[in-house]
Amino acid sequence: MHPHFKPGPLPLSMQLTPEGKLKHFLSTEGLPHLLLHDIMDRAEQFVTLPAKQQKKAPFLRGKTVMNLFFENSTRTRVTFEIAAQRLGADVTNLDIRTSSATKGETLLDTVRNLEAMNADMFVVRHEHAGTAQFIARYCAPHISVLNAGDGRHAHPTQAMLDMFTIRQKKGDFAPLKVAIVGDILHSRVARSQIHALTSLGTGEVRVIAPKTLVPAGLDKMGVNIFNNLDEGLKDLDVVIALRQQRERMDSALLPSEQEFFKLYGLTDKRLEATKPDAIVMHPGPINRGVEIDSRVADGSRSVIMEQVTNGIAVRMAVMSMIMGSMAGGAA
Ligand code: NCD
């Protein structure tokens, strides 16, 4: 990265204009609950609008969105692409494996070159925490940056599509008990979800994980920590399962998949401890038979595919709000 850049705390002024509108979307941390509801309200409009009519809402017409994915992705990249297209943008997917990034070009030089091709928005995924923030700090002022996942740090649009799905299914957040189960330590999704859930005033936020997969300082984020699955599942309204991020793990932390399933795998039987109408979520990719039994993933409680569909509307919402703020408009 840049020799002088230290990814530190993210001031709100980096994401918001002086009027409090979105300029970049880098993290859910510290964002006011009204803004989170604005994103969901707007996503609601896109969800209820048939795809054909969505194309008639060209908030991004004439704009160029560049997807910069330095890490693998299916759902996030494709739904960002569809969202940008439905808003009328030109979308380019930079294939990093065949780009000059592999020839030693610095990230900033790559960014400068893409700016010279008239980019308006960068959607960035990178294995290093702080990369989206770094690009937002140094790119041209008319460009907006959306964080599509940076290391273990944040994945704000995933968290917002999860919040949107919860609001669709359950309404108000205040009476809800929500738990995130699994590899919290390596999960940018968990961090962004916890910030969003607490900002939205969720009744109780729990994490359920083995001690080795709970990050230090998590207790200060306003969550209750459970190491026992059956205790943690009691009376839940929403259960969010996470994949073990094996690519980010030291081998010492790596429980065997069978052992993990035995202790923390979601099965119909164990879910009997939750409320009868509890929903099961997962950001994907799911590992069947590790954190979730196939019968649960494909069963009636699962809203996993709805999360994927909602990803398009939520990303449309965020992108259109950003473009509205950038143009100084009322969007
Ligand atoms: C997550 C990610 O990449 O952070 N997936 C996603 O964006 N849908 C979670 C994961 O990789 O396990």
TrEMBL record:
Keywords from UniProt, A to Z, are: Pyrimidine biosynthesis, Transferase
Q: Name one GO biological process term.
A: 'de novo' pyrimidine nucleobase biosynthetic process
Q: Which residues bind L-aspartate?
A: 103, 188, 243
Give the record's GO CC terms: cytosol
InterPro entries assigned to the protein according to its UniProt record, in alphabetical order: Asp/Orn_carbamoyltranf_P-bd, Asp/Orn_carbamoylTrfase, Asp/Orn_carbamoylTrfase_sf, Asp_carbamoyltransf, Asp_carbamoyltransf_Asp/Orn-bd
EC annotation? 2.1.3.2
Which segments constitute the Aspartate/ornithine carbamoyltransferase Asp/Orn-binding domain? Answer: 176-321
Q: In which pathway does it act?
A: Pyrimidine metabolism; UMP biosynthesis via de novo pathway; (S)-dihydroorotate from bicarbonate: step 2/3
Transferase: present as a keyword of the record?
A: yes
Task: Name the residues that bind carbamoyl phosphate.
Answer: 75-76, 125, 155, 158, 284-285
Extract the SUPFAM superfamilies matched here: Aspartate/ornithine carbamoyltransferase
Note whether Transmembrane occurs among the keywords.
no
Ranges for domain Aspartate/ornithine carbamoyltransferase carbamoyl-P binding? 23-168
Q: Which GO terms describe its molecular function?
A: amino acid binding; aspartate carbamoyltransferase activity
A Pfam family in this protein? Answer: OTCace_N
Q: Which reaction does it catalyse?
A: carbamoyl phosphate + L-aspartate = N-carbamoyl-L-aspartate + phosphate + H(+)
Function, please?
Catalyzes the condensation of carbamoyl phosphate and aspartate to form carbamoyl aspartate and inorganic phosphate, the committed step in the de novo pyrimidine nucleotide biosynthesis pathway.
HAMAP family in UniProt: Asp_carb_tr
Concerning its family, UniProt says: Belongs to the aspartate/ornithine carbamoyltransferase superfamily. ATCase family.
Assembly description: Heterododecamer (2C3:3R2) of six catalytic PyrB chains organized as two trimers (C3), and six regulatory PyrI chains organized as three dimers (R2).
Q: What is this protein called?
A: Aspartate carbamoyltransferase
Give the species this sequence originates from.
uncultured Thiotrichaceae bacterium
Q: What is the lineage of its organism?
A: Bacteria, Pseudomonadati, Pseudomonadota, Gammaproteobacteria, Thiotrichales
Q: Which gene encodes it?
A: pyrB
